[in-house]
Amino acid sequence: MTYALVAGVLFGLYFSLVGIGLNLVFGVMRIVNLAHGDMLMLGAFIAVGVVGVFGIDPLFAVPLAFVVFVLAGLLLYWVLVPRLQGSANPEMLSIILFFGLSQVIEAVTTIFAGTSERSIQSRLLGTVFTTIKVKWFGGKAGGAGPIQILGQGFPAPWVIAAVTSLIAIGLVYLYLYRTRLGTLTRAVMSRRDEALATGIDVDRVSAAAFGIGLGLAAVAGVFAPFMFGSVTPAFGADATVTSFAIVVLGSLGNPLGTALGGVVYGVFYMLVQTYLSSWADLLPYVLLILILLLRPSGLLGRRVRVA
Amino acid sequence: MSPETKPILTVSRLVKRFGGFYALDGLSFHVVPGEILGLVGPNGSGKTTAINVISGLYAPDDGEVAFDGAQAGGIASHRLVHRGINRTFQVPKPFLSLTVRENIQVALAYGHAAGHAAATPPSMAELLDEYRLKEVADRPAADLNSAQQKMLDLTRALATRPRLLLLDELAAGLNPAELDWIAGRIKALAATGMAIIVVEHLMGFIEQITDRVIVLNAGKEIFEGTLATAVREPQVIEVFLGGEHAA
Amino acid sequence: MPDTSKHLLFILAPLVVVFAVLPGVYQNHLLLFNFVIFLILAQGVNIIYGFTGYLPFGYVGFFGAGAYGFAIMVMHLQTPAPLAVLVGGVVAVALGLLLTPLLRLSGAYFAIANLAASLAVLHFVANPALENITKGPYGVSLTGTFNPTDAYYAAIAVLALTLGGVVYLKNSAFGLALQAVREDAVSASMAGVNVVKMRVIAWLASALVAGLAGGIYAWYVSVFYPDNVFSSDFSIFAIVFALFGGVATIIGPIVGVLILYGIYNLIGFTTPQYFQLIYGLLIMGLVLFLPAGLVSLATRRGWNVP
């Protein structure tokens, strides 16, 4: 029980990171990024590349993935979004547009990388810490062993992913509540039309949110090989559905709600895995539907979403 | 006008809350067939909320709406439409991708339930002609300018043969010539026995067409009578001028 | 001649006749069958998305429910295939009824909830705990009813029914009212339209045709796994085909299926990733430059497209 709960929280924090970028993009632009999972998949491939080419700790892929994808996001934003926003029904068409994008990403990745599963030896993650530890304090070199929490051992990559996620969520919070652009972002999220009317540069705010959203997805992707065992180009579609479940749980359009949604999802997921494994696959979806119908604004939301 | 006839709509002690805010706080009034009643008051005084409750968009939290002798509060809009209530919207809401003709067709086809006797239906040609939409009849509603969209909204309502028509700021944004013309049309509709409630900010327009006004403030009636007397009433002046000066 | 007869005579009839005759001259019957199935599904999407505005991202749920409705009737009650197909349709409608609360959701929320619903049905059917009823993840084998020829003609019958339904929607006050609801539900109710009833009818109609198509698919292939008949490719293909041609028209989805599924069969089997690339780029180009589908090339010029 303790094991399932702690593992659930660790996974949940990671799931929050998985979903938060999707939510930021929807909250600001009312755009449903169905290619979100593919950004995760590409992030994972960056990690695989960093390990394969340089043979260094995949943690170094985190800043790399973030920077690359923020830039890619800005570029994609300017190519796709203004045209989309000009159409009759941007929310609906965004689903289809980004589905097309996800197909393109999946196809291109398959063409260049094949369909085989990619994984990274889990002991490679966090070697940078153990190296520092050995240098400063002496001791045995090698990968990080299991980490003890509440008397139980958990794989080091889970803990590292959870800690990274916490830091990332903290940074998103600081961005939204402590910077000028973040404040404007919140203004656009609460009333897009009024924000336009008051002269806020909605395009700049949106582009930033889009870039950051993609960057966060790619960072989450770096850890995907450790959390899910391996990744293939087709991993993106499943990751998108999972992200949705998390985001809706927390409330769509409220990025910080996603942190709660992720933890609830993670704990729930681990408990079901442990005690009801034959129904485990079914429950996330049923949960998603029930939350949408019974608590239509998510666990933390206030927004009305009824037709 | 014949104010002595039996009211077609009677609203009694109507209450509508949004969270802790009382948009309507015990509103009562009535309107008789053939009468044009104005609802006036500052922004947020509950005029549009009153129309939304009477047309079935919101269910009242307390109080009663009686239409034609039968209870009408909290009944689904399309049923009220079939019983003879219709309205226009402050911001017109036409079916944008359908043509003007198709917009009206929907209301002609669905506006009337079997078994409810009413006057002969207005014809498509009449409606298009009388509300100056003939030229644009086969264009999508999205192509119309805002005055034309307002007229389309009105014809959509009229196609259902209402006996009570609620007009929410129909005149706002029209030019003086259009105002005169639409005032004439509204009076002509009332002359056929239709009861009409007009929510409007343009006092000149209200003066021109209404028989009687109700002045609302904070969801309550503070005055009832003609506009000419209303403007001499200290409480009314307080609400309109005092409120604005203070703000 | 009224438009309804014109549409029946010049669109529905030729299409049905061509597909009825083609097996005699073209050998790849499975391909023809798949074309008919996608024509049905694309028109089913047209009914619920084109006319009503709900994007059914989990549309395959009805298809799979129909396939399993068919399979269960055949496996456990030895029902004759045509009757089992009808039961497949009924099962899909029952699922549609169960899911009517989803219609309260709007826009992306509906699309996501519908996707989740189809995945939930998949995992329910594929659950090893239900092996006695559905054969769980191990798949079903229905060799007793295997008859691709009859199944093919049944598919054409359902296609005719579906097209007939769309022709009705395109030419009736009922179809117009549905579109009014799609455009603005509040105004539609003020035009006297019973919004909830209209939405439910369209939803169940589109569930019915997908369920019948699923039952016939089960009849035709006779051996399948849950992942086959609940593959989200069915939903996605049907949606993209319908959109590509143009929804809320009769010919849009037909054109979409013939062109895109044609391309798919030319290049999709040998090099699926290149098809996926082209298909993804086509979708993106469509949304950005032709959001109302290919037919909008004609409607923009003021031509009336049925």
TrEMBL record, chain A:
Bilayer topology: Multi-pass membrane protein
Keyword Cell membrane: yes
CDD domains per the UniProt record, alphabetical: TM_PBP1_LivH_like
Localization of this protein: Cell membrane
Keyword tags: Amino-acid transport, Cell membrane, Membrane, Transmembrane, Transmembrane helix, Transport
Spans traversing the lipid bilayer: 6-27, 39-56, 62-80, 92-114, 156-176, 207-228, 282-301
Pfam families, per the entry: BPD_transp_2 (PF02653)
Organism superkingdom: Bacteria
Signal recorded as keyword: no
Record-stated family: Belongs to the binding-protein-dependent transport system permease family. LivHM subfamily.
PANTHER family with a match to the protein in the record: AMINO ACID ABC TRANSPORTER PERMEASE PROTEIN, BRANCHED-CHAIN AMINO ACID TRANSPORT SYSTEM PERMEASE PROTEIN LIVH
Record-given protein name: Branched-chain amino acid ABC transporter permease
Organism taxonomic ancestry: Bacteria, Pseudomonadati, Pseudomonadota, Alphaproteobacteria, Hyphomicrobiales
From TrEMBL, chain B:
InterPro entries linked to this entry: AAA+_ATPase, ABC_AA/LPS_Transport, ABC_transporter-like_ATP-bd, P-loop_NTPase
PROSITE patterns tied to this protein: ABC_TRANSPORTER_2 (PS50893)
Domain of life where this protein originates: Bacteria
Molecular function (Gene Ontology), one example: ATP binding
Pfam families in the record: ABC_tran (PF00005)
CDD domains (UniProt xref): ABC_Mj1267_LivG_branched
Function: Involved in beta-(1-->2)glucan export. Transmembrane domains (TMD) form a pore in the inner membrane and the ATP-binding domain (NBD) is responsible for energy generation.
Coiled-coil residue windows: none
UniProt lineage: Bacteria, Pseudomonadati, Pseudomonadota, Alphaproteobacteria, Hyphomicrobiales
Protein's name according to its UniProt entry: ABC transporter ATP-binding protein
UniProt signal peptide: none
Keywords noted in UniProt: ATP-binding, Nucleotide-binding, Transport
Automatic annotation (TrEMBL), chain C:
Protein keywords: Cell membrane, Membrane, Transmembrane, Transmembrane helix
Subcellular location, record wording: Cell membrane
Main location: membrane
Alphabetical list of Pfam families matching this protein: BPD_transp_2
Transmembrane segment boundaries: 7-26, 32-51, 58-77, 83-100, 107-126, 151-169, 200-222, 234-264, 276-298
Membrane topology: Multi-pass membrane protein
Taxonomic superkingdom: Bacteria
Name of this protein: Branched-chain amino acid ABC transporter permease
Species: Bradyrhizobium jicamae
